[in-house]
Hints:
Number of helices: 11
Radius of gyration: 36 Å
Distance between the termini: 19 Å
Shape: elongated
Largest sheet: none
Amino acid sequence: MQIFHDSIDGPRSQSQVLGIVLYAVLALISIWATGESLSLTFEFPVWISYAVAVGILGLMAALMNIIKRSFEERNLAPLVICFLVFLIVWFISLGTNTHNFYLKGSLKDIQEKELKSIQTELEGIRTESESLINTAATDLRFKISAAINNYKKEVTNEKNPGHGHKADSLKLMVEKLLPGAQFTIPTGSQWYNSSSNRIKLAELMGGQMTKTMNDKVNSLLVKKDDIDKLLSEKDFEVYNQDIANHLSSFFDKSITENRTLVSKSWQFYNVLVDQVKNILSGNVIPKDQIQIRNKDIPETPGSISLEHISNTNRYVSSKRGFASSEFLFAFLLALGVDLGAFAIFYFMVLKNDE
Length: 354
């Protein structure tokens, strides 16, 4: 701190020495917090991150010294310029400190919640898939059966006997519900010359339509076996067991170990969801209508996205309750460290004892 002390002022007072000690403690905390945040956000080598942090702190100290002298000398221009620059640099310091304090205080809790969430999602993916298949099969059967019945009623309608335009349009509707299917109307006038024959025609055509519908529904139900096969091939149970074992001794695990498993589990879940959707998608269930993924499960886990300072506000804003209060505490802690350091430096270290 010799650069902030003129030798002609004599030796430092006890107040200044104490101020230097207290400022050094708070400065080290700020350097550590800023360095860690920068290292995570920009993936700098640690020594570069800490060098930048020292530079930020040194710049703020120099600016405070200039601000104090400009104020005492009533020199307005450097006072205003340095004060504005100081606010900008302080904003960076306050942001990185808050970011690091929040991570250090909350990260492990966030990782635990994410592992529990992904475990629940993995356990439920089979159930969700089967439920979707059953619902689609039921809906498909209901829609096609209704269309077949409408067609049969029109063919046997005594007020409009024969196979006219309306019957043709109803047959086309059934074919659209069964993509690729085409039902050929038998030739010969004998099918239309009596009510009993028209009923036979309706039953014949309805039978073909019903058989095609059953084949389509059964091909959808077979997808359950395809999903079971996929889950067994993709080490589904292994991942589930790994997460369960990890959670059973979670607080003995390091943040790095937690991060590794969270990342691996999330990647596995993302790939698995896409593969399940590929199995389920087709003419019956359009891929964009398959809702297997929980909307509360993002593509990237929050504990990893939080490593970048720019994602902090978005993450905290999406949460409620405890997450917000933890962030507020981290912000107040960072604010206290910075304001304490500023006050000590300005009023104790830079103090000129008369």
